[in-house]
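A favour, since you know our structure tokens better than I do. Would you make up a two-line entry for one protein for me to read? Write everything out right here, beneath this request.
=====
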Amino acid sequence: MFEREGWSMSELRSAVEALAADDLHELREGQLLDRTADIVQTINRLQAELVRTVRHADVVGAAEHDGLRTMQSLLRGHHHYSASAAAAVVRAGRVLEHLPRLGSAFAEGTVTAAQVGVVADGLRPCDVAAAEEQDVDLGAFDEAWTAVARTLPHAKLGTAVQAFRNALDPDGPEPDPTERRRLTMTRHDDGSGSGRFDLDAVGFERVAAVIESMVQADRPRGDLRTRAQQQGDALVQWADNTLAAGGLPLLRTVKPHVVVTVDLEDLVDPATGHDAAATGFGARVSAARARWVACDSTVTRIVMGPDGLPLDVGRTKRVVPPHIRRAVEQRDGHCVFAGCDNPTHWCDVHHLAEWALDQGDTSLDNSALLCERHHTKVHHGFRVERDDGAPPGERWRTYRPDGTEIILGPLLT
């Protein structure tokens, strides 16, 4: 048996190597799609075999052969699986013992590992025990879930599994939605960050509604952003709006705000100045980025002594005072970047002649309303200029970094 198994694996590896050697440029579109379908089905079958093997190895305690307690720990330690991926393989093996039809479809390659995972997540050991106590025939659900997995969109399977769990305890107490809410944020070495959140159905609906409203409100012509980029911009805009509204709880007697600390020499130097400024939460950003933030912010002058201690703290001053901002909003009406009509409350007031580098004054004539994304663009090579001789609605011109003007074509209907 061992020799046969080794021979099968050798054949499998040879087949994969042959696939990798194919020249995809020689295949027509239909052939590429057929190849994709065959590979997906084969991967499903291999995943099913992995689940079957890991389950049997777990039952017989094979991990002890290498000094480990479980196959889940072996998948993590020996094969570099994440904890969640290893747990998913083990859970799938356990649940498929109760669902032979789904297991057969998985082995045939018509059901994916992700679909089996949906069922495994919804059919916990306590649910299997509850079904046995209530004489619920899992066979009927096995047949129904397999049919859904084979024929309907992925999301439908989760709905079908949830219906089973609801039927097991129709009068049970409603769970506390806050118990399932999680948010983790990780800052990377370059100051950027990533995060993950887990929300209950209603909480997720609220967040999705806010993000979608901002995505739909920010759709300028010629927008080439991906959906993920649009949602990322919407999240930052949500935070920006919330900070600007001023209704957040105080942080140590101070309203929450973005803090950027930069030396005066770096602020007025036209060089990029990488890592010249520090944010309030410890990230390092460039002086160029600090100048962008300072364009519409409050500025506090702090004189430092040779020992690094503050000698004098000047008054905090708003770069763009409220009356100037109101005038700019009234005149521009929305972001003035070509093709963008983001509303005034999403916008910063940009200095056409920079107040730090070019000693540009804070005045109506030297100001332009730009949303967060296009304010960034203007500080990275794009340019907006006002043409007072043009008719209303066409008084702002936008230029690319190469000096060519962005000309908007007619709206397509």
